[in-house]
Amino acid sequence: MAAHGARNRGGGRPTLEEVAARAGVGRGTVSRVINGSPRVSDATRAAVEAAVAELGYVPNTAARALAANRTDAIALVVPEPETRFFAEPYFSDMLRGVGAQLAETEMQLLLIFAGNDRERQRLAQYLAAHRVDGVLLVSVHADDPLPDLLSQLEIPAVISGRRSARETLPSVDSDNFAGAYAAVEHLLGRGRRVIATIAGRLDVYGAQRRVDGYRAALEAAGREVDERLVVPGDFTEEGGRRAMTELLERSPELDAVFAGSDVMAAGARQVLRERGRRIPEDVALVGYDDSAIARHMDPPLTSVRQPIEEMGRAMIDLLLAEIADRRPAASRTLDGRQLVLPNELVERASS
């Protein structure tokens, strides 16, 4: 019962000093044991751990973080409207991977949307106050000012999907070029003659690379690339509908479509059905992401599987390494800090 009395002495939670008095050691020794320092004898460590258990002492992580100039928080920043975040499986899969990897640490995760100028301004002020130890950036467009702001503020950051071939930040991406190449190669192997593509937003480097893979696969098969068959969408279902409508007007004879996301493929499928085109008999359809949408579509959608959860986990590992590395960013190379993970074509009935 003595421990219970000590815990409530003064009415508050037990202090480091009370643990030190109970263990018969100095305050600094308790601090070293709690922080896992090897410079403590086994007997002393056992005495401190017993005192911690008896008193129910909980280390004040906020105070420890402050002393180390740390916040123990990282931000997942999405430069998109909230509606898109909740409509696209890509984001929820990414969040799942990030959350799972972060659960093994003491870090807190903040989800921040920056889909308009006002939100971006508020975020800039928040970051300038150094309220987080690091930032994960997903779905970044080529002209987004956020990555440069993070560099200026010297806040560790990892980007999901590079902005260009000359990306200056640590990044995790999947092989968009190879994924698209495999999708079009698959359609060619099925004997399709007129293959169109619904691209994502072309100010997103990953979407550009998918179009590059589409072109390269056609050229490798000795086919001429008809630019009228390349129509950008915006990664939304409505964007897929609009693009599919335009493609059918431009080229009614098309017999295959490669969509840059499963969500856009779902929009394309609606239009094809409305126009009386059977899938896959009249038009074969391939998507990208291999989300739940692909599995539940009728017919089930052939899709390029991105390892999105694995990408989220890899981003956390990379960011924690960035936070731990105290050297100035300018003195470090990007070797080993720009990861490209492989994709996989998952064949289903739509093609």
UniProtKB/TrEMBL annotation:
Keywords: DNA-binding, Transcription, Transcription regulation
Keyword Ribosomal protein: no
InterPro entries recorded: HTH_LacI, Lambda_DNA-bd_dom_sf, Peripla_BP/Lac1_sug-bd_dom, Peripla_BP_I
Domain HTH lacI-type: 14-68
Source organism superkingdom: Bacteria
GO molecular function: DNA-binding transcription factor activity; transcription cis-regulatory region binding
Classification via PROSITE patterns: HTH_LACI_1, HTH_LACI_2
Protein name: LacI family transcriptional regulator
Organism of this sequence: Streptomyces antnestii
